[in-house]
Amino acid sequence: MNVAARLIFYVRRSEHVTPLLYDLHWLRVPERIQFRLCVLAFRCLHGSAPSYLANSLRRTVDVAGHQRLRSSDVTTLVVPSTHRSTFGDRAFQVAAPSTWNRLPASVRAATSLSTFRKELMTFLFRSIVTLSLTCFTLAHFSDHQHTFY
User: Fold this and answer.
1) Is residue 70 domain-resident?
2) Number of domains composing the chain
3) Is residue 96 part of a domain?
4) pLDDT digits (tens, 9 = 90+) for 37-87
């Protein structure tokens, strides 16, 4: 995607790609992975995913002992513990629930796939813009720090 964005705008490889992705309304690669994981999790929860994926996710309310928790009234998923933090955390059974649980409740509450995709894309795109503005502000402040002496 980064190469495609650079090709569209005819920019060099050394230039930052985030502003280009912003102009195209594309997600960066890490957010694109989150998008795909969350869409798959949504499909699993709503019965439109393959059974081998759907069977690997469990809602918090379906686990004995979790029915009386505050989290039982929202759609959260159980994140299984792993022994290997590098390989085990990348498995769908772990990555999808942890990514899903980080979404705001308003995004998780979507009733259709098209609404969910739209809400999710908006949420992820806003998080990129917020991150980019924060990084720009910090970089700008650190560049001009010498003027405050």
Assistant:
1) yes
2) 1
3) yes
4) 999 999 999 999 999 999 999 998 877 665 555 555 568 998 888 776 666
In whole angstroms, how far apart are CA 136 and each of 18, 79, 139? 12, 34, 5
Tell me whether residue 89 is in a domain: yes
Rg (CA), the chain: 19
Which segments of 8-85 are extended strands (E)?
none
Measured between alpha carbons, how far is residue 87 from residues 91, 96, 135 in Å?
Answer: 7, 14, 29
Q: Is 72 exposed, middle or buried (0-12, 13-18, 19+ CB in 10 A)?
A: middle
Residue 61: give the domain boundaries: 29-143
CA-to-CA separations, 49 to 23, 46, 91, 98, 115, in angstroms, rounded:
32, 8, 17, 18, 17
Which H or E run contains 102? none
Residue 78: left (phi > 0), alpha (psi -120 to 50), or beta?
beta
Q: Is the pLDDT of residue 142 over 70?
A: no
What pTM was computed for the model?
Answer: 0.77
**22 belongs to a structural domain:** no
Amino acid, res. 125: F
**What's the half-sphere exposure (Cβ side, CA atoms, 13 Å) at 4?**
8
